[in-house]
Amino acid sequence: MSLLEAISLGKEFKRRGQRSLAPLAAVDDVNLAVKPGDFITITGKSGSGKTTLLTLLAGLASPTSGRVLFRGRNLRELPDRELSRLRNREISFIPQGMGLLGNLTVRDNVRAPQLFAGKDGADSSRADFLLEAVGLSELAQEYPPSLSGGEMRRVAIARALFNQPALLIADEPTSDLDPANTRLVMELLRKANQQDTTVLMVTHEQEIALYGSVRLTMESGKLA
Ligand SMILES: Nc1ncnc2c1ncn2[C@@H]1O[C@H](COP(=O)(O)OP(=O)(O)OP(=O)(O)O)[C@@H](O)[C@H]1O
Ligand SMILES: [Mg+2]
Question: Core-most of 84, 198, 203, 204, by most CB within 10 Å?
Answer without folding.
Answer: 203
